[in-house]
């Protein structure tokens, strides 16, 4: 059997706790023994004195009985003898015996009192000992319970270790599988990219070949028409003299030219070539150049209308005039507590004087920027949740807002009630923007979808599923750009089903802003940077940073100036930062009325003033 210091054996934990209990019991014995060490000698000494006193009492009783008998028998002899011999008389002995008896009684009383006290102390100590024994038994029971619990916990620990080992092995297997799948995914993405490039090349080649066939067919048609028209122009026909057999040929040729004859009247110089023997006779002739122009016009019209001559062209908004050079803001001219709680979004209308703000109080306010002041115009109520995004269409007649109520709502300027509710998302709608074509809009949500809407019917025409939830969207001619929480910007072709491109950035994307010429994209992200992306080369052209600038929230909005010369954003400390896009230099930092984080900024289309909103309910107009 191994000693306490021996090597570890399976029974070693049991021996350790046994030795621990023995040490605890010995320590308890030493502690309690110290309390009784003084009491035991005193008690022993008291017992010795009690025995001695009992012996003295017995001796005194015997002596007293002897003395009494002696006194009764020969008191006179002793008195005479004492008187004669000079010894104490019995009276003196009696007095002396009484004194000694009183002294002994006092000593016995004191010793009896001490015996009582010691007995009481002993009883108290016995009670304490019984209590300590009870506590010891309770502690021993608790120790036994704890030992059982410890054994159970040790067993659970062993089971958990076994599970951890199994899970670690499974994790390693899954990690290896994930690595293999990632490699396969990268390979498939590369193959998809190559296939997409090949498809684009094939489509381009097919388009070139189709155009060549159309051109050849057009040239052949023009040549045939020219030849037929030359033949028809050289002939002189008299209706009265034409035989029946030749009339069919003339009617056939006339039918071939019916469309051209309906589009143009008879040329005067060509009418002289016809002979009119009767008043009721009539004929139609077209010059060669006029017919060619008519055919070209028909072909051009067909090309303009698309692949089908009867196709309906898309209705687009008129282009918004943009200033040639934006003016840098210098100071805040007007500051208002516009909402009941924080303001999340702001947007200018196309006339640069009307702007809309939306906040967490579920209200949208329209303002007129007149003479450096903000004047209240209209308030839209009825939103189902906090407003996260506001946009005005290029005509300035409609306002589209994204809400926390899993929907976007459409209002018409001048009307109090909401015009349409675009419902279909399953989580908060974080962005809602109008497209450049009429009656169309795009929304992004935290349910990891981007939806296209037909506003005329309040119908979702397309749903795009994404791997990460969307924070902002912008729309171009035929492209939709979305910024996501997984630090990526995705590009979608509105005419195709798939994502055309992904650009990774550092940090969660909080906002996107597309330049007026649709050649540059400005993104703001939670790594406290702004990035300018050149859409022609699909690369990051500039990265803007500044000491003190910090993105205040996941919905902080940054914008281009109308002329794309500057980039503007608000910081967590209430300051506005403006960079020069071409040089990358921090142009200026504006401090003003904002004491809370700036959520959004907007630059009017005329370039003359800027509006900023913050989490402290303030709206500031800068000029």
UniProtKB/TrEMBL annotation:
Superkingdom to which the source organism belongs: Eukaryota
Cellular component, GO annotation: Atg12-Atg5-Atg16 complex; cytosol; nucleoplasm; phagophore assembly site membrane
Keywords in alphabetical order: Coiled coil, Cytoplasm, Protein transport, Repeat, Transport, WD repeat
Domain Autophagy-related protein: start-end pairs: 20-211
Swiss-Prot/TrEMBL GO biological process terms: autophagosome assembly; negative stranded viral RNA replication; protein transport
Residues in WD repeats: 336-368, 380-421, 422-463, 560-589
Coiled-coil boundaries: 122-205
Location of the protein in the cell: Cytoplasm, Cytosol
Protein's UniProt keywords contain Repeat: yes
Nucleotide-binding listed as a keyword: no
Function according to Swiss-Prot or TrEMBL: May play a role in regulating epithelial homeostasis in an ATG16L1-dependent manner.
Family to which the UniProt record says this protein belongs: Belongs to the WD repeat ATG16 family.
This protein's name: Protein Atg16l2
Gene source species: Cavia porcellus
């Amino acid at each position: 059997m191994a000693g306490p210091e021996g090597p570890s054996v399976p029974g070693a934990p049991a021996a350790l706790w046994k030795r621990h209990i023995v040490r605890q019991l010995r320590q308890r014995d030493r502690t309690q023994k110290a309390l009784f060490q003084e009491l035991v000698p005193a008690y022993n000494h008291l017992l010795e004195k009690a025995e001695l006193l009992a012996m003295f009492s017995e001796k005194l009783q015997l002596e007293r009985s002897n003395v009494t008998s002696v006194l009764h028998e020969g008191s006179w002899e002793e008195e005479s003898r004492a008187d004669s011999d000079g010894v104490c008389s019995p009276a003196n002995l009696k007095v002396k015996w009484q004194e000694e008896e009183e002294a002994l009684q006092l000593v016995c009383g004191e010793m009896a009192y001490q015996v009582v006290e010691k007995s009481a102390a002993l009883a108290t100590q016995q009670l304490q000992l019984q209590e300590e024994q009870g506590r010891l038994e309770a502690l021993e029971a608790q120790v036994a319970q704890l030992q059982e619990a410890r054994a159970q916990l040790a067993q659970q620990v062993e089971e958990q270790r076994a599970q951890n080992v199994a899970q670690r092995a499974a994790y390693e297997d899954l990690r290896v599988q994930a690595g293999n799948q990632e490699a396969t995914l990268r390979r498939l993405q590369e193959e998809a990219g190559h296939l997409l490039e090949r498809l684009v090349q094939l489509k381009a080649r097919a388009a070139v070949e189709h155009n060549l066939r159309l051109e050849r067919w057009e040239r052949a048609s023009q040549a045939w028409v020219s030849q037929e028209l030359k033949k028809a122009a050289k002939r002189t026909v008299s209706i009265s003299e034409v035989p029946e057999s030749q009339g069919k040929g003339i009617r056939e040729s006339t039918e071939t030219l019916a469309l051209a004859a309906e589009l143009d009247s008879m040329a005067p110089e060509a009418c002289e070539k016809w002979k009119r023997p009767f008043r009721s006779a009539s004929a139609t002739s077209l010059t060669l150049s006029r017919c060619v122009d008519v055919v070209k016009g028909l072909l051009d019209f067909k090309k303009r209308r698309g692949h089908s001559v009867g196709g309906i062209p898309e209705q687009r908004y008129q282009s918004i005039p943009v200033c040639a050079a934006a003016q840098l803001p210098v100071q805040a001219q007007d500051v208002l507590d516009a909402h009941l709680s924080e303001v999340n979004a702001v947007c200018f209308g196309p006339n640069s004087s009307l702007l809309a703000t939306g906040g967490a109080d579920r209200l949208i306010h329209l303002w007129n920027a007149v003479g450096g002041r903000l004047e209240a115009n209209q308030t839209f109520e009825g939103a189902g949740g906090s407003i996260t995004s506001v946009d005005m269409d290029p005509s300035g007649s409609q306002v589209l807002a994204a809400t926390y109520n899993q929907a976007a709502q459409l209002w018409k300027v001048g009307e109090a009630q909401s015009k349409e509710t675009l419902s279909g998302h399953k989580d908060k709608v974080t962005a809602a923007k109008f497209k450049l074509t009429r009656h169309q809009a795009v929304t992004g949500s935290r349910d990891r979808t981007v939806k296209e809407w037909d506003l005329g019917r309040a119908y979702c025409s397309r749903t795009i599923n994404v791997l990460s939830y969307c924070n902002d969207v912008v729309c171009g001619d035929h492209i939709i750009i979305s910024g996501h929480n997984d630090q990526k910007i995705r590009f979608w072709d509105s005419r195709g089903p798939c994502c055309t491109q992904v650009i990774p950035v550092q940090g969660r994307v909080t906002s996107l802003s597309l330049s007026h010429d649709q050649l540059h994209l400005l993104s703001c992200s939670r790594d406290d940077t702004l990035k300018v992306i050149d859409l022609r080369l699909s690369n990051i052209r500039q990265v803007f940073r500044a000491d003190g600038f910090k993105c205040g929230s996941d919905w902080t909005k940054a914008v281009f100036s109308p002329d794309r010369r500057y980039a503007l954003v608000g910081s967590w400390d209430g300051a506005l930062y403006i960079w020069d896009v071409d040089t990358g230099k921090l142009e200026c930092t504006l401090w003003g009325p904002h004491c809370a984080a700036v959520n959004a900024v907007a630059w009017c289309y005329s370039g003359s003033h800027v509006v900023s909103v913050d989490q402290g309910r303030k709206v500031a107009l800068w000029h």
